[in-house]
Amino acid sequence: MTVTVRVIGAGRAGRSFAKAIDDLVDWDAIDMRGRGVAIGDAAADVDLVLITTPDTVVDDVAAAIRPGRAVVAHVAGSLGLNVLAPHVRRAALHPLMSLPDAEIGAERLMGGWFAVTGDSMVADLAVALGGRTFEIADDDRALYHAAAAVASNHLVALLGHAQRLGASAGVPADALLALALGSAENAATLGPAAALTGPAARGDEATLVAHREAIGRRAPRELAAYEAMLAEARRLAAMEGEA
User: Which tens digits make up the pLDDT trace of 143-163?
Assistant: First the structure.
């Protein structure tokens, strides 16, 4: 029996989910309603309503949908189930990945990680996508989302920091990106503490002093970020030493 899905929100997340669901055998994204399209009856004739709008309007969108037979779910990482009132069957399905456009997003949804809570239909969808799931309680949603932001957004910001430092010395950005990808693979294989290399891991204070002096002279605006990440590297090195 085919499970029918209506997507509310025609942005990158909505289009990614719609495309990925359409590629499944026993699931069907019957339509996608964007801004300006009536949604009052959205839960009347489908099994699952998937709200993929920005987090700030999820509660308004849910409130505008008349309760029906469908499960009503959102894909926001930081929100719990309370924003989906007054619907009885409710759930959250957050894809732990970035969805830059429909094509890449649909590919990443296949086999990805999903944070789930509420009605089991969303876990069924994640499994149908070949994904892996874990449950996050409502009280832990903000902390979970913070961890996701660090792993994704902060990592990108850190790469920008590295590229700005490298540009001051003529280092190609692609060379630093290749280094970062290799380090990420090491962390995935060994764990972050065991994968840490470099002067902080070795306790090479002379090199760290040289780093600070060079950054202070050539790229002083980058010194605060360097100091913050050095502190985290020292902390990680200490954790490895205690293991």
Answer: 999 999 999 999 999 999 999
